[in-house]
Amino acid sequence: MCGIIAYAGTKGAKDMLIDGLEALEYRGYDSSGFYIAKEGSVKSVGRVANLREKAVKAKQGSTGIAHTRWATHGVPSEVNAHPHMGSQKRAYVVHNGIVENYQELKEGLKKSGVIFKSETDTEVIPQLIESYIEKGFDFHQAFLKTLGDIRGTYGLAVMDAFDNEKIYVARMGSPLIIGIADHGRFVASDNSPLARHAHSVVYLNDGDVAIITGNEHEIFSQKGERVLRGEEKMSADVARAEKGEYKHFMEKEIMEGARVVENAIRGRIEIDDGTVKLGGLESVADRLREIDRIIIVGCGTAYYAGLVGEYIIEEYAGVSVEVEIASEFRYRKPVLTPRTALLAVSQSGETADTLEAIREAKRKGILTLGIVNVVGSSIARETDAGIYNHAGPEIGVASTKAFISQVTVLALFAVFLGRQRSMSLVTGRRIGQELMLLPQKIESILSKRDELKKIALAYKDVRDMLVIGRKYNMPIAYEGALKVKEVSYIHAEGYGAGEMKHGPLAMIDEHFPTVAIAPKDSVYEKNISNIQEIRARKGKIFTIATEGDSVIGEVSNDVFYIPHTIEALTPILSVVPLQLFAYYIADAKGLDVDKPKNLAKSVTVE
Ligand code: F6R
To answer: What's the CA-to-centroid distance between 53 and ligand 1, angstroms?
Structure first.
């Protein structure tokens, strides 16, 4: 949430900042703005494109800070857009995070005569810096004193209007990366804007403060002691994503489904031994042998992937699994034994709630693992060990290819754990073989996407819908409903099909359709009964079924057929038509599919 970028160097700062904001826009798009030394600031409501237009005549400059906002405190408006400055117009600040004690700080500053312009929590930061300068501190000291006063989370880039070269930076809970390019230095919330420029990166840790110029960076603790953080080569995975021939990133990313599975399994399946090789887990392989319980944490789509993981790991590895929404885990008192491991699933690797769950688990001394897509992200770095998805950048705010990859990696993890325990060679081989067949099966689904487009058009004007499934496909019902909700704004509820008669059936009539996921699996007959119960109440049914099923057409208004695979892997196939269904509805409604209202890609506030 919120993206920040700063640049000091010999290329035009304005272009570097605006291009960077475009790459970061998926983190928030309520407003954007920049401040460039000697040139001043420009702000605009809405998309970065508006800022670009407004700044056409602004000079390039060489050093500046910029921000794209996901509103937390205060409506999206120019006044609330960053950068925020103090009343003396000396301190300029861009901030990702939340100043939790801002009310208290604001009251104190107001009493000493400071007049606030915005409704944001951020504005207290430049005002505090200036209040310390007034008391005789230099800018650097004033910045450190301010950090000592604020409570909450922050990724901060700050400039002094009296200094055209330095950018002051601090990190606490919100990610910040220094990018080193031949023509200067960047600071950014993630490495997406750095891909085209930086040859190496330096990841800041919580508590780090840095001073950046075009030629150097120095990192300190908040007490002012020098800190050394190594430079890492810019990961090749961070190619800047382009939409190419597609209208939206969401469509492009769904169409990458087959490649995503290939990338997740590449070099990992050892078919002869019926096992998988997961390099990222080697260092903890012995500890994993002792584990008798896994708690999977994640948010939204990643949480639903975790739910599929629960079924797979329990069935194939015989290890007890609980799946928990990350924001709940940390506020409970979970019973954790030394033989419990926490597994965090996160595309971005920056989700604040998931990160905090990991920190809580670490405080309790248990093993922490991650399934993460973004290389070098906070979750990847803070967990004891983990598995990368290698799904490539996901830009559409609605997660699609990452989900496919997460479930694939969870299946690999189940085989890894299973083969450490009592899973047979034959079973290990069978899962490995089926995983290897998935890419071509996904391709066959994608090749029939026009069928889905037609079906989607028939459902696009409904107000509500249910999405139901059982066992392995119950989480897919949740995930399918989430996709419909977030991109098409249709109220969709995901339900376990067996739960229909315990309440939701009451809503069914001819205006309230249901999407049923009913592949040929061990709960197929039960699903058919549930579909019949809906039909008996005049409910319209769109079913996702297995190719060759000759019965399902008789009980459904619309059917989409997916290829057969083993039950545990059906979610990886059944989710694809649901993703396309949601996409086509949203597109037909003319909505901004990649940037649904009120959302942001990377949720770095709690
Ligand atoms: C939904 C969606 C979100 C994310 C959730 C977790 O389409 O994208 O629900 O899945 O915010 O994000 P990550 O996986 O980055 O931790």
So the answer is: 31
